[in-house]
Amino acid sequence: MVLFEEKYFAEKNVLYLIPSIFIFVLSSYMFYLDIFWIQENVFLSIVVELLALFMLFLAAIHIWYTVKIDEETLSFGFILSMGKVPLKEIKQVLFITDGSILKPWGHNWRQMVNGTCFLTGYDDMAKVENNNGESKYFSIKNTEEAGKVLTSLLGKEKVA
Question: With contact defined as beta carbons under 8 Å apart, do 11 and 139 qualify?
Fold first, then answer.
């Protein structure tokens, strides 16, 4: 049963989607012209078309961002790249509501040496540290409600 869930549109990712659509349409046009006139570089057109389609797919799946808390896990991220942390492995959850940290980064998904970062460029974020010392950072809009749910599941000493 889901106790907390927020889904929102990551507007900054549209900046990646618009050029992807343009490149896909342009490469499709070139591909069909090559087929129509049976050019020698049809293979190159197919490769460019597939790369453009892949770029469009990657941009499209990073439009919707989700944070979900149920009785067993804390999940966050984009459709195919969801970070999941079992609640029993959480050492501490820290909510950072000072938006100045995110301003220079904007949209971000990266693997770090001892953790993962899922940021969309919004003002609030959370840091989840597990028992192994690994940390995961993720964007969250409703820190107050998420904090209440996590406090009820983990206890006051683990949520700051």
Answer: no
Q: Which alpha helices (H) appear in 38-142, and where do they start and end?
A: 42-61
Residue pair 28/20 in contact by the 8 Å Cβ criterion: no
Segment holding 142, helix H or strand E: none
Domain ranges for the chain = 2-7+67-158, 10-61
CA–CA distances in Å: residue 84 to residues 22, 87, 154: 34, 9, 16
Residue 133 burial (CB < 10 Å; 0-12/13-18/19+)? exposed
Q: How far apart are CA 10 and CA 17, in angstroms?
A: 11
Instruction: For 83-116, write each residue's pLDDT tens digit.
Output: 889 999 999 999 988 755 544 444 455 545 456 6
Distances (CA, A) of 103 to 100, 127, 139: 5, 17, 12
> pLDDT tens digits for 28-82?
887 777 667 766 667 777 787 888 888 888 888 888 889 999 999 999 888 887 8
Q: What is the pTM of this model?
A: 0.73
Count the alpha carbons within 13 Å of 63 in the hemisphere toward its beta carbon.
12
State the fold for domain 2-7+67-158. PH-domain like (2.30.29)
